[in-house]
Fold this protein.
Amino acid sequence: ALDAFDQHATVVRAVEDFSVGISRGEFVAIMGPSGSGKSTLLYVVGAMDKPTGGSLEISGKLLHKMTDTERSRFRNATLGFVFQSFHLLPRMNLLRNVELPMVYSGVLPGLRENRARALLSAVGLSEKAGSLPAELSGGQCQRAAIVRALANNPCLLLADEPTGNLDSKTGLEMMSIFQALNSRGMTILMVTHDETMARHSSRILRLRDGTLLSDEKVEKPLQTKQPEGIDIPSIIGSPDKIIL
C-alpha cells in the first residue's frame, strides 16, 4: 500500500497495488470516483503525506525515506501545487502571493519581485499585481495560483481539481495554460473528475478503491486556444536568472 489510514482500529487502504512511472515532460491526468484515492495519491507524490508502504522516487530522490523536514525542503524546491480553491492568502496582493514560495527559498527581494512580475505578466495579470484575491475573478485567481506554483522553477507541477471552482469556459482557459507549460517541458500531474479536462492531457490514469484500473494514452489530446492576454514566454527558469 502506498498510503493507509487507521480509522477506529480499522485500516483503510487509500492507495494500494499501485505502480506507475511518469517520464519528464508528460502531462498526466488522474481520474476516478470520489474516494478512489486520487487526492491521496497526489498528496503522497507531493510530499505532503508519507506513504505507509512501498516506494516513491522523484528526480532520483527517495521520498519514502525522507524525514518530515527533508520532505518539506524537497517540496518547496522541487514541486509546484495548484488547488481547486486557489489557496491565495487573502490579505496579500497578487505580487506578494506569487513571491511567497521564493521567500521560503531565500531568494533575494529584488530578484523575487522581478520574477513574480514576469510570471504575472505571462498570464495577463500585470495590472492586477497590487490587487487582493477578493477583488478578482475565479479565473484570475487560478492564473495567479498557477504562476505562484512556478515561482521556484519546479520539476513537477501538481494540480488537484484545478478547474473544479471554475465555469467550463474558464476551465478550458486553464487547460490552455497547462498545455502551453507542458509544451515547454513542464511535467504535470492533474487530478480531475472532468473527462473533457482530462482529454487535454496526453495520458489518463483511472483509479477505483485505491487501485489503478487503467493507464490510457490519449492519442489526440484536445487543444484549446489561449485566451487573449495570455502569452507564456520562457518563464520556466531559475528564480535567480529572470527571463523577461
